[in-house]
Design a protein that fits this description.
Layout lengths: L13 H7 L4 H8 L5 E11 L5 E10 L26 E4 L2 E4 L2 H5 L1 H4 L21 H8 L10 E2 L12 E7 L4 E7 H4 L2 E3 L4 E2 L5 H6 L2 E2 L7 E4 L3 E4 L4 H4 L15 E3 L4 E3 L17 E3 L5 E4 L11 E4 L3 E4 L5 E2 L8
The structure holds zinc ion (2 copies).
């Protein structure tokens, strides 16, 4: 299906943008999320942001039981250590992107300097993985079931309960915050295809249990709470966003939880921006603030949010009081 037209218009926050164009903010957002699996919305709702600001948000509810329309999730892990890179996805370590191919799995003990790593059967080369809903949940929880040590953690979209959904409640106009908000509590935002742009994956906890939870080549994997979600922005999103914003910036790939636009990591010539603040943001020539997604290997789509965050809700409700939310463990 054709990509949604996403242009530099959305560089302005949604409300400012609507004032300058004939489309309402809701029309603009509907357009932006054209390729998302939308269940309801976008609609305008009242909301309370992370530092208590009461303002106007948009709310959109997206199904987590189906694949995104613009890509097919997976594969995540190879079946055998003899498999090539097409059989698996990627892993992120120290800023680098590694292909999760058979050779990568077979050399984990060397890679991490720890002989406990043994994800495959030394006789057959078969790679151990979580092949059921029960195994996926037992291995994906923070205190990994010891039975799943030395497994590839791989959950399928089919494991997500029927009818599951996720609702994003995001300010139409960003509201200043006293200090940056860490995205491991809020998530980074939502991509134009409705998929969650998550905060950093808890890599240390994953590795501590001698597990690897690979991302597919699009930087995504599945958990049963939020479904398929991204921990890295790769060319699946970069390449799908409208590249012709007219100012060398590339098209908008998502909206951050504070309402600011998220653009690709690099400019149209492939160069990274050098004037970004600690949250990967800066202003364009017109003074409009926006973010650039972190490099794919960084495990930080956004490390922090510059303004107050809205809510990500598991399910269909759209009541957002982000100031009341307990910090995510
Ligand atoms: Zn994840
Ligand atoms: Zn920029």
């Amino acid at each position: 299906m054709p990509r949604p037209m996403i242009t530099a218009m959305l560089l302005a926050s949604t409300a400012t943008m609507a004032a300058a164009h004939s489309e309402s903010p809701i029309d603009q957002l509907s357009h932006f999320f054209e390729s998302a699996n939308v269940i309801s919305g976008p609609e305008i709702v009242d909301c309370t942001l992370s530092e208590g600001a009461q303002t106007t948000c948009f709310s959109i509810t997206v199904s987590t039981t189906v694949a995104p329309k613009n890509s097919t999730p997976g594969p995540w892990r190879p079946t055998n250590i003899s498999d090539g890179p097409e059989a698996g996805g990627i892993w992120l370590q120290d800023g680098e992107v590694y292909d999760v191919d058979g050779a990568f799995i077979s050399k984990l003990a060397e890679f991490y300097g720890d002989a406990e790593w043994q994800l495959f059967d030394p006789e057959t080369g078969e790679i151990q993985y979580t092949g059921t809903l029960e195994a996926c949940e037992a291995a994906a929880r923070p205190d990994v079931d010891p039975a799943y040590q030395n497994h590839c953690v791989q959950c399928q979209i089919a494991y997500v309960a029927d009818g599951s959904a996720i609702t994003y409640v995001i300010p139409l106009d960003p509201v200043a915050s006293e200090r940056p908000t860490q995205t491991n509590q809020t998530g980074s935002g939502v991509a134009f295809n409705g998929v969650r742009l998550d905060g950093p994956a808890p890599v240390n906890a994953i590795l501590g249990a001698y597990t690897i939870a690979p991302f597919d080549d699009c930087g995504g994997h599945v958990n049963t709470h939020v479904g398929y979600h991204y921990h890295a922005v790769t060319d699946c999103l970069d390449g799908a966003a409208d590249a012709d914003s007219g100012d060398g910036h590339g098209g908008q790939i998502g909206i951050a939880m504070d309402g600011y636009p998220i653009l690709p990591h690099t400019d149209a010539s492939g160069a990274a921006f050098t004037d970004l603040d600690s949250c990967n943001g800066h202003k364009d020539e017109t003074g409009a603030y926006h973010y650039h997604a972190g490099a794919a290997g960084s495990n930080q789509i956004l490390g922090c949010l510059s303004a107050q965050a809205g809510c990500v809700l598991e399910g269909h409700g759209n009541t957002c009081d982000a100031s009341a939310r307990p910090p995510r463990p």
